[in-house]
Amino acid sequence: xxxxxxxxxxxxxxxxxxxxxxxxxxxxxxxxxxxxxxxxxxxxxxxxxxxxxxxxxxxxxxxxxxxxxxxxxxxxxxxxxxxxxxxxxxxxxxxxxxxxxxxxxxxxxxxxxxxxxxxxxxxxxxxxxxxxxxxxxxxxxxxxxxxxxxxxxxxxxxxxxxxxxxxxxxxxxxxxxxxxxxxxxxxxxxxxxxxxxxxxxxxxxxxxxxxxxxxxxxxxxxxxxxxxxxxxxxxxxxxxxxxxxxxxxxxxxxxxxxxxxxxxxxxxxxxxxxxxxxxxxxxxxxxxxxxxxxxxxxxxxxxxxxxxxxxxxxxxxxxxxxxxxxxxxxxxxxxxxxxxxxxxxxxxxxxxxxxxxxxxxxxxxxxxxxxx
Length: 372
Known about the structure:
Blueprint: H1 12-21, H2 27-38, H3 52-61, E1 68-74, E2 81-86, E3 92-99, E4 104-107, E5 111-113, E6 128-131, H4 134-152, E7 159-162, H5 172-183, E8 195-199, H6 203-212, E9 217-221, H7 227-233, H8 242-256, E10 260-266, H9 274-287, E11 290-295, H10 309-321, E12 326-328
Parallel strand pairs: 4-7, 7-8, 8-9, 9-10, 10-11, 11-12
Antiparallel strand pairs: 1-2, 2-3, 3-4, 5-6
């Protein structure tokens, strides 16, 4: 039996056209969006300023909520909550609600699994399964908003970071549509300055962001300041070496006028030497980028180690001494495996990662099992 398409997969323009074919005026699409995203209703029948016949027609054509909150795990030490979201086909992704005294951040996934197989990250261990639709991306935000309202006494998300499972720019069209809904005044209505897209460095898609006029903060998962170091940690560097990546970052920064950040996971003995700090400072100064230093969060089955506090602080001091804004981000949510690099799909992978050719993806290998 064919499943109805999700209403959350409809852009405002697409829904407007659907309603036009039903003989409805264009403003009806904004009314539907306001019910979905401002009032967070999950039933067409609850949209009481629409006619009964239109509600029935919408109900015939679309599903109104095809994901569910399957599990949630709250870290008692820092209040971060990891949510397991079950999708309509039974696959799952993980999203994280991260509270601080000044903001409520939602960390959102964009794919089931990941193709890029960064050697220190849990998300790609079980391989890649599929892209998320725009609606599946957006519904994670809605689930975290509902949770935020409950846990914070009425507050909603203040910031969104696309830093969960998957490479956001590898799912470019769905990401772009989701950003459009999240920033639309008739929908979620968030400022683009409160949205951050993290990428492992897919340079061609960074160029597309600039060409398409997408205005968000860009966070580059650098993790190595030379091609030798970065290439050993991140297969994507074979397709997009550092100089190519930095050129794309420069174009995006000039186009968007938004902040650029380098995320740099510190791995003991791999990328935490003084020479690494010197090269990283050069790249950051060239682009006016801030640096987030992230001490490695352990992942079961991986042999990397976290540097000592003293070594982390020494690395930071070297950057600051060279005029770089550098902070240490001690990740939240580690108690429930929700910290940076720890999110993973909770199933046995059926699909192996694809070979590195010109796309920078990981070599083909046997898919490993993740504990459910």
